[in-house]
Automatic annotation (TrEMBL):
Lineage, opening ranks: Bacteria, Bacillati, Bacillota, Clostridia, Eubacteriales
Keyword tRNA-binding assigned: no
Originating organism: Candidatus Ruthenibacterium merdavium
Name of the gene encoding the protein in the UniProt record: upp
Stated family: Belongs to the UPRTase family.
Protein name (record): Uracil phosphoribosyltransferase
Binding locations of 5-phospho-alpha-D-ribose 1-diphosphate: R79, R104, D131, P132, M133, L134, A135, T136, G137, A138, S139, D200
One Pfam family hit: UPRTase
Functional note: Catalyzes the conversion of uracil and 5-phospho-alpha-D-ribose 1-diphosphate (PRPP) to UMP and diphosphate.
Activity regulation text: Allosterically activated by GTP.
UniProt: uracil binding residues: I194, G199, D200, A201
GO molecular-function terms, A-Z: GTP binding; magnesium ion binding; uracil phosphoribosyltransferase activity
Amino acid sequence: MGKCLVMDHPLVQHKVSLLRSKSTGTKEFKELVSEVSTLLCYEATRDLPTEEIEVETPVAIATTRVLSGRKLALVPILRAGLGMVDGMQALLPAAKVGHIGMYRNEETLEPVEYYCKLPADIAERDVMVLDPMLATGASACDAVALLKKNGVKNIKFISVIAAPEGVERLKKEHPDVDIYMAALDEKLDENGYIVPGLGDAGDRIFGTK
Ligand code: URA
């Protein structure tokens, strides 16, 4: 069974509170999503493998450690996941970025895939899937299934706010996937919005409403 981790760091909690407020405007919202993503990235990279090397400092030889595992890729689910890329890349500048486009059929609430462009060597990379809202879990599960179909073996799912329904579905369909979130909320409403949540993340990041 994969990890399922809710970040309880005070900075994360503070920034998520600001994100939730309906009086937070687009510019600040986008900056906060980025900052929370950087903090999530810090946590989600905690188990990356390292190896020992020797480095010559101006004073002596230091025995020290560097990252040693497989290369990484970030895969935002369009469109809200795009808001998380900058913040993740702040810590992972060498990660390649793939994109999966999905929209929600408003009647069935099921995702429809309309775009997929992944790095050519995606099967050799460990992948972090980015979506600020893990709501029903439908698009999360589809994105993970698509990555597995492309040969990806190790997948982490990174979200800002999750609903219990989404977490359960992702855990059930893809028990090998580690899930990281900044907050775990109460429930979904009848329109598939997370309660209390923060509204439509895409609209708030891009100012489309
Ligand atoms: N997507 C969003 O942007 N917000 C929600 O609350 C649920 C899904």
